[in-house]
Design goal:
Number of strands: 4
Order of helices and strands: HHHHHHHHHEEHHHHHEEHHHH
Structural class: mainly alpha
Shape: globular
Number of helices: 18
Oligomer: single chain
Strand order of the largest sheet: 1-2
Distance between the termini: 35 Å
Largest sheet: 2 strands, antiparallel
Helix content: 55-70%
C-alpha cells in the first residue's frame, strides 16, 4: 500500500471532522466509528497482523460445515482488498447523511437489520451456487453488507439533479456514487452476490419485512450508556474556521461541486417564491440577506407568525397549516418545532423540501 493511498483514505476519515455541523456537530458517531474501525482494522490485518488475516475470510464452508458462525462478524470488520477499502470508505462517507436524517439509534438498528438479512441471503445464494456446481471462492470481506442496502434509500429519497449528458446518457449528482458501487460489484460472481443481496436487504428493511423495524429497536438506556462510555473517544471539537477546506482528492472536489450545485438549486427555488414582506422593516424581505447560513434568515429566530403576516401583507392566501404528523416527523429527526414550522411554511408543506431546508440550514 503506497503512502499516497494511505493519505487519501486518511483524508476520508479525517475530513468529516472539518465538515462544519455535518459529521461531528450533527452527532453521527456510528458512521464515524465504522469508518475509523474499518480503515484501521484493514491496515492492521493486511500488514503488521497479516498472520491473522485468515480470521477475516468470508468462507461459506467454514461457516456452515464447521459451524464457525463468528466469521459472519469478523468477515465484516476489515477489507481484505485494497480497492474495496478505498471505494467502500468513500461510499460510506457519502451515506453518512442517513444517520443525520434518521438519528443514530434508528440508523444503528437499520444496520443490524441489514446484517441479519444480508447474511441469510448471502449464505443461501452461495449454497444455491454450489448446488449448481459453480466454482465459488470466499465472498469479499468488509462491511459491504452495510453499504449496498443504503443504495435503496439513496435512490428513493435523495433528490435527483441532472447535470448534463455524456454520449446521450443523463448524468446526475448521484451518478458518481452509482459508478463506485458498480465498480466493486462487477469484480466477480462473489461481489455480484454481495451487492444483489445487499440491495434486497435494503428493500426488505424498507418494506418492513417480518416487522423487522419493530423487532430491532435500540433502547434509550442502552444508547445512553454506550455514549457515556465511548462518547469521549468519538467526540471532536467544532472547527474554529467556518470556511470549508478544498477536497484533497478529485473525488472530494467533485462532491463539493455537486453540493454547491444542489445548494444553488434549493436557493433558487426559494427566490422564485418572491420576497416576503418584513413587518419590522416595512419593506420587501429577502430571506437570504442576513445570517451565515445558506438560507440566511432561516437561521435567525424569525417567528412563524411574522412569516405568515408577510404573506397576508402581499395578499397571498396563507397556506394550510402543517399537520401535526408532518411536524412530529421532522421533530423526531432532531429539529426544533419552531424551525420545523418555518421550513414547512417556506416549502408549502412539502415534507421533502422542508427536510432539505432544515439539513442545508445546519451546514
Amino acid at each position: 500500500m503506497s503512502g499516497s493511498f494511505i493519505y487519501q483514505v486518511l483524508i476520508l476519515c479525517v475530513r468529516p471532522c472539518y465538515n462544519c455541523n455535518v459529521f461531528v456537530s450533527d452527532k453521527a458517531p456510528v458512521c464515524k466509528c465504522i469508518l475509523g474501525a474499518s480503515f484501521l482494522s484493514s491496515v492492521l490485518i493486511n500488514f503488521p497482523l497479516s498472520q491473522y488475516r485468515h480470521l477475516c475470510v468470508y468462507d461459506y464452508s467454514l461457516i456452515v460445515e464447521k459451524h464457525q458462525l463468528w466469521r459472519l462478524i469478523t468477515a465484516r470488520v476489515a477489507f481484505l482488498d485494497v480497492k474495496d477499502l478505498m471505494i467502500g470508505s468513500i461510499l460510506f462517507y457519502y451515506f453518512r447523511t442517513f444517520e443525520r436524517r434518521y438519528g443514530s439509534r434508528k440508523f444503528f438498528a437499520q444496520l443490524i437489520g441489514f446484517f441479519l438479512f444480508g447474511s441469510a441471503l448471502e449464505l443461501c445464494a452461495v449454497h444455491i451456487c454450489k448446488l449448481l456446481q459453480f466454482n465459488m471462492v470466499p465472498l469479499p470481506s468488509g462491511p459491504l453488507c452495510f453499504i449496498y442496502p443504503l443504495f435503496v434509500p439513496y435512490f428513493m429519497d435523495i433528490p435527483r439533479i441532472e447535470l448534463g449528458n455524456v454520449l446521450g446518457i443523463p448524468m446526475t449528482g448521484k451518478s458518481f456514487q452509482y459508478f463506485l458501487g458498480l465498480q466493486v460489484a462487477s469484480g466477480s460472481l462473489e461481489t455480484i452476490i454481495v451487492a444483489v443481496c445487499g440491495i434486497i436487504s435494503g428493500i426488505l428493511w424498507r418494506k418492513n419485512f417480518l416487522k423487522i423495524q419493530q423487532l430491532i429497536v435500540i433502547p434509550n438506556t442502552v444508547a445512553s450508556i454506550v455514549y457515556k462510555v465511548f462518547g469521549r473517544f468519538i467526540e471532536s471539537a467544532e472547527p474554529k474556521d467556518s470556511v470549508l477546506p478544498m477536497g484533497a482528492t478529485l473525488e472530494l472536489q467533485r462532491q463539493e461541486r455537486m453540493d454547491q450545485i444542489e445548494q444553488q438549486v434549493l436557493l433558487q427555488s426559494i427566490r422564485d417564491q418572491g420576497p416576503l414582506y418584513n413587518p419590522n422593516q416595512g419593506a420587501a424581505y429577502n430571506p437570504n440577506q442576513n445570517g451565515p447560513g445558506l438560507f440566511g434568515a432561516l437561521n435567525d429566530e424569525i417567528p412563524y407568525a411574522d412569516l405568515d403576516e408577510g404573506l397576508r401583507q402581499r395578499n397571498v392566501p396563507a397556506p394550510d397549516p402543517p399537520s401535526d404528523e408532518q411536524i412530529q416527523q421532522l421533530v423526531d429527526m432532531g429539529f426544533s418545532e419552531e424551525r420545523v414550522r418555518r421550513a414547512l411554511l417556506m416549502s408549502h408543506n412539502d415534507l421533502n423540501n422542508a427536510t432539505n431546508f432544515l439539513l442545508q440550514e445546519s451546514l
